[in-house]
Amino acid sequence: MLHKWPLHQLDVKNAFLNGNLSETVFMEQPPGFINAKFPSHVCHLKKALYSLKQAPRAWFQRLSTFLFQIGFSCSRADPSLFVYKPNSCVLYLLVYVDDIILIGNDDAMIRRFITRLHHEFVIKDLGKLSYFLGLEVTYTSTGLFLSQAKYAHDILTRTKLLDAKPMPTPLATAKNFTTQGTLYSDPTYYCSLVGTLQYLTITHPDISYAVNQVIQFLHAPTIAHFQSVKRIIRYVKGTLAYGLTFSHSPSPSILGYSDTDWARCIETRRSTYGYSIFLGGNLVSWSAKKQPTVARSSCESEYRALANTGAEIIWIMHLLRELHVLPPDRPTILCDNKSALFFSQNPISHKRSKHIDIDYHFVCELIAAGRLHTTFVPTTLQVAIIFTKSLPRPQFESFRTKLRVSPPALCLRGVLEIKIDKDLKRSHDLLN
Q1: 2 or 204, which is more confident
Q2: Residue 31: other Cβ atoms inside 10 A
Q3: Which runs of consecutive H residues, i.e. helices, occur in 261-297?
Q4: Which of 82, 175, 219, 254 has its CA at a distance of 20 to 30 angstroms from the CA of residue 102?
Q5: Which residue from 335, 342, 351 is spatially nearest to 388, judged by alpha carbons?
Q6: CA dist list (Å): 233 to 87, 229, 405
Q7: Beta strands in 302-401 (DSSP E)
Q8: Which CATH architecture has domain 250-387?
Q9: Which DSSP string corresponds to 384-431?
Q10: Phi, psi of 358 (to 5 degrees)
Q11: What is the pTM of this model?
């Protein structure tokens, strides 16, 4: 939304039936359409059908071939993204199975493209993007507001927690998870709930750390783990209307925060790391994960987190370059560990660093080449800390605000249009 271009949503009807099969596939004659003269014959399929394992690949091949023919190019960073840029005109097309989002700077070119797409496939023009894969899009005077209020409401309805008292934070302060305890009686239900919460993190990055913790026990959840999941859902109850705000930025730059909680897991002693990456002040990427190996020092765990953050930033830069909106300034990573920063800027080989995998040293190369910059940030301003540990309520709310996770802003459009669901308002009042 850097240029305030309009977003269009399209839907392809019977998308999988458009795919042409390159393999030899036979099918039994369907009931009601059996040839009386040749009842034992089979059908040789020329086009894909639903439930055929080749159907998704065949459909995407058909669509991408059509887009290539009219001048689109496929992104290397994201194969579901296509870019059209003949001259000053720019069009971006993002496809997810049969759902398409189209954005560009030329309305006339967009209309011509949609008309041409109509001639090739059966397309339903859904107009301005408002609801996409559970994400609700609200347009503001400065940009976009993304939320999953309906999806979150469905979770509460399913778990029968609509009338539960909301919690101020997803997890209790200094909460530690272990495998000890009485096993939960329905692990399938536990896995299902955690999976729905994981999808909710698309617009609720504030629950990413909590979801990462409970997702580590899918194989054998305990009653304590299930209680933690219920606490997360009760937190969601109080933040149903919350979402991510994206606003216009005249001079966007890439800024990343990297942090770890050394040896957080008391059983495996593996560290939890997290990062948050902003583009023009808008949160575009974040993560909360457990490191795959044990770090022998906090410096090592922080340095590994720097490497992961750097890798994500490089991917974002590749994507922005293909979108022709790469910022001129080099990206910056902020870290609160001075030893890790020193090691990233001064790759000196000595006894204290021999154990660090050589794969992580590419951060030094990026810094030496001038493609990346690292600098120190105090822990009190370390935004990524919300992805590495459970925080007290004041700190949690402060960092949540810095992530730009908040309720929708009230706005005036001709007449006052404020429609707040009674359940959402009551939950917000209880929480505050």
Answers
A1: 204
A2: 6
A3: none
A4: 254
A5: 335
A6: 49, 6, 17
A7: 332-335, 373-376
A8: 2-Layer Sandwich (3.30)
A9: GGGGTS---HHHHHHHHHHTTEEPPPP-EESEE-----HHHHHHHHHH
A10: -65, -20
A11: 0.86
Cβ atoms 234, 253 nearer than 8 A:
no
Contacts of 39 (CB under 8 A, 6+ apart): 29
CA 122 from centroid of its chain's CA atoms: 30
Task: Decide if pLDDT at 429 tops 60.
Answer: no
Q: Across the chain, how many H-helices and E-strands are there?
A: 11, 20
Q: What CA–CA distance (Å, rounded) separates 388 from 369? A: 30
Q: What is the pLDDT of residues 377-420, one digit of tens each?
A: 999 999 999 999 999 999 999 999 999 999 987 543 333 334 33
Output the average pLDDT for the chain.
87
Q: Do residues 42 and 29 lie in contact, with contact meaning Cβ atoms separated by under 8 Å?
A: yes
* Residue 167 identity (one-letter amino acid): M
Q: How far apart are CA 406 and CA 204, in angstroms?
A: 9
Residue 244 exposure: Cα atoms within 13 Å on the Cβ side: 22
Contacts of 8 (CB under 8 A, 6+ apart): 101, 102, 103, 110, 114, 125, 126, 127, 128, 129
Q: How far is Cα 409 from Cα 214, in angstroms, rounded to an integer?
A: 32
The two beta strands, 7-12 and 123-128, are antiparallel
